Amino acid sequence: MRVIVYFIVAIGLIWVGVLESTSSSVEDFRRYSDDHVLDDRTRSIQRVLAVGLVGDLVVSKIISDGRDTVITEGNEEFSLPSPAFSGNLGASK
Amino acid sequence: MLGLESFSGLTKQIQLACLVSTAQKLAIMFFFAALTYGVTGVGAMLLMTLLANTHLGKDGSGKHGISIAESSRLGGVAIAIIVIVYIAGLSLMSPYTSGPERDDTFLYLWCAVLFCCLLGLAEDVKPDFLTPMLRLGAKFAVLGCLFWLSPRLIPLSIGFYAVDLLLNVPIIGWALVTVFAVGFINALNMADGANGLVPGIALASFAVFFMEYGRPMDGALLFACSIFFIFNVISGWYFLGDTGSYGLGAILLSYGLLGVTDGHFSAGFMAALFCYPCVDFMVSVVRRLRAGQSPFSADNGHLHNRLHHFIKLRVKSSVMANSFTGLIISGSTSGAVLLVYLFDILPSESGLWYILFIVEVLVYLATLKYLTSIQPKTQYANPA
Q1: For the segment B165-222, what is each residue's pLDDT rounded down to a tens digit?
Q2: pTM of the full predicted structure?
Q3: Core-most of B21, B82, B104, B307, by most CB within 10 Å?
Q4: Roughly how many angstroms between the first and final C-alpha of chain B, as a whole number?
Q5: Helices B216-235 and B241-261 meet at what angle, rounded to 10?
Q6: Shortest distance, CA A87 to any CA of chain B (angstroms)
Q7: What's the complex ipTM?
Q8: Which residues on A lie below 8 Å from B93 (Cβ)?
Q9: Can you say whether the dihedral through the CA atoms of B337, B340, B342, B345 is positive or negative?
């Protein structure tokens, strides 16, 4: 019984990283589409605690590459207000 | 009576020393996991620790490679669970669209990887459940189907005129790549004999793929392999098992082929990156045939066996000797390629990577020749 609890705790701790990655990704996308700024997100203590020093680099890389992925794949769930982005979206379709 | 009491006291002291040693190892492993991957790394390390202590998939001492301690074969299962949890979470809660949803090639690729993992899992949970010939046939069938359905994975140019001519004939190209793919997966399985050897090669490879492409799947695999690498090298309680070696073999093979066909990497780059498993496999087959043995029979003439024998005479701890062996081999082959790539000394699509590959092969052969000359003759076992 105790082992099952430990397994749940382990999966829960891994989910901390998942939540941090997804929230960073969505937050980055909002800022990117609103401000059109391609700056790297400053390293927060919260993210370093959640995903560690190497994990922080991994998440940053996923997010920065994800910007391109979202645009080239033309994900329709996300609105891209800038006409420049709309142009890219249309070209990829 | 006094003798019995002193014996009991000695046993308790040994048990206490083992407990302290285990606690120290756990503390070091969790420290490195927390440092590299934070709370998430601690969760992954906890999951691996729990799986390593289950009764399922236990390997007796001396049964696996050069290890002399009882260990778990569920390392591949642990990596698979971590990657699935991570990718499922990303797919559900972020704009990430996984490869199989976007592209048919990735769909077939991951189906083949899943099949290879299940094939290995059957062997890990119940050894000798499938005969070696059946496993081999199943691998040929699934990889043959993969390359038939996704001809995009078959490279048309690897830099050698005669081979390129053959690869450009569709049926011959398909047959050659299928044979190579089955050989590669078996080679990786055969090389999985020292702590940190195959995990080190996988870690370096996923680091390269992640830096090149930045795909979340590569990031998840890099994360899971890093934690497994830390666990495997420090404790020696875990092996990849057939699930891990078949699964990681299929992933590395497919990513490598895809990288070469898309022109992001040269065939020489991949040859240098995966030099050890491929060369060790070829040399082992030749050695066995020259000795009049079956190419499938196990022996202790691999470079990692020889190197371990050399190191263990000079290092007190058996785990350290095992881990040093794996780290030296993976670090001097795939690790060296990672460093050259990281510092951008050579472009990844350059044909000059073949020079590094040739250097690796020469060092392998020279080291093996020297160690064979100073050590006892190779012993062969009949195939299971």
Answers
A1: 999 999 999 999 999 999 999 999 988 878 899 999 999 999 999 999 888 899 999 9
A2: 0.86
A3: B82
A4: 48
A5: 140
A6: 20
A7: 0.79
A8: 18-19, 22
A9: negative
